[in-house]
User: Fold this.
Amino acid sequence: MSSTASGKNGTWRNWGGNVTVRPAREVVPASVDELAAAVRQAAEDGLKVKAVGSGHSFTAIAATDGVSVRPQLLTGIRDIDRKAMTVTVEAGTPLKRLNVALAREGLSLTNMGDIMEQTVSGATSTGTHGTGRESASLAAQIRELELVTADGSVLTCSEKENPEVFAAARVGLGALGIVTAITFAVEPVFLLTAREEPMPLDRVLAEFDQLRTENEHFEFYWFPHTGNTNTKRNNRSAGPPQPVGQLAGWFEDEFLSNGVFHAAQLLGRAVPAVVPTVARISSTALSARSYTDIPYKVFTSPRRVRFVEMEYAVPREALVDTLRELKAMVDRSGLRVNFPVEVRTAPADDIALSTASARDSAYIAVHMFRGTPYQAYFTAAERIFTAHEGRPHWGKVHTRDADYFAGVYPRFGEFTALRDRLDPDRLFQNDYLRRVLGP
Assistant:
């Protein structure tokens, strides 16, 4: 199922419902050659070009009033190299399909985010990540990229071939070309044991460094208006597999996390005064549990409740202060925040515009239920995040511009210089890229 929400009369709407656009035309290429031809034709017609994945970005990063490229026919595995332990996939392949196909081959990605509706190219181009002590974002697991550039040529890049493009294009924002295939490092499929456990926020913050260093993957959700969190630790396991039972899984993941949670969101949106009470009940509804399964069944979970999200990466050592400031702001503001705050970590990487570029990072994600006014909350949160030199997720709501990014990304100039070389006429430009990369 594609989660792209396409509207009537050729309009396109994203998953969060906060971006709508009507392109001049849509193309659905069935091959890289067809895609290259569509890019050349757009340039001849004086139209901009953007590729759009599953619409999971909350920013207008994929929006265009020119030519919208839909990659749904560019899917599937091209090649599995068991000697090099890599897999090459077409850019439009949804992560869900990749994960299932890899598992069937006895393989797995090392780390992943918590949903898998996105296409591989959309997820990597915006810097999508999970949480990890040593293992980093999806883009950091890329070993080779193929992209169609502004003149319609097909460029392959890796650490050996076009290394300067490789350093930037793994998180390329769609600004350097249209990604057509990605080669990921993979490993033999393994088991993870997840331990989910409620824990007071004060304890999580006091023991944060310990929890992070003792676990391969640590994350937690804090429920605003409460001092409660739900923590999740994922560590490799020798087995045996002990998946979540069907009934327990349905109750926790579908009934509580999607069904009842959705009802609580509707109530909170209609009657904001009840939000703190609902938060206290919600934050105590989930009980501790452990289960052991293959990675994608542990890392990812269904998200049926639609929301709008802002997420910032702050230096890891600033996490505790940043979160305390966020809590103090919510407590004194009169805001009614009906959605948990998600906290994850990532090690530094070497990708120019990765949110973890050259610094160990902690991620703080704030959400609001779709249709609830979010601006006041996000604006106040963003003020806190930017005071700590935060870097916003490229696919989530933020108000930053090129001047700001030049100050928080040491390699920002390297990226924009490469863009000047690869796309001098700004064929892949849109309003969002004009704002974040400069004209």
